[in-house]
Amino acid sequence: MDNIKIGNFIRECRKNKQMTQQQLADKIFVEAKTISKWETGKGLPDVSIMKLLCKELDITINELFLGEHISDDSKTEELEKLIIQAYEKEAKTNKKNVIGEILIGISLILFLLLVVIVAYVDMKGYLKNIIIIAVLIFFLLGGAGIVILDANIGYYECASCHERFVPTMKEYVWALHTPTKRKLVCPKCGEKTWCSKKLSQNKKSNIK
Ligand SMILES: [Zn+2]
User: From ligand 1's centre to the CA of 153, what distance in Å?
Assistant: First the structure.
């Protein structure tokens, strides 16, 4: 899908309706900066909001996908292609997320295994030192890697409004957390809640 084209189309339709970004935002329960993000092609409306957005702009979902007004059904083929592309992209993201989770699991098991070996297996002193150093290096490098990987996969769901979002690295690192939850400020409703980790942004296709 062509984000820029769709963004320009959203702006055009909004202006035709003589609404400001804030007015449109209020009508579909998002923030004005979200509208700005769409209009500048930096993001696409979530599936959950598309219907409402189209209703306010007086366009069809097909027109939104294409980023232009359609007067006949000559664009059907092009539309089908766009929809299939969107689904494939979502499926690919989910797969990447699952692989990330598995890698994190394996890394943690390996790390614990090394700790157990050092603690309980009887071996020569220098060998033990080598393993301790290896574990330390692994812990520092691997730990940083795991944090980056974990922060970049999946989404956190606000406990209050159920918005799914990706926290910034700074928020992620400093947030209080349990293995599956983090205390984060929701970008949509602004509340600080225990957000649970989700693999997909789309609520229906969530596989966790
Ligand atoms: Zn929220």
Answer: 19
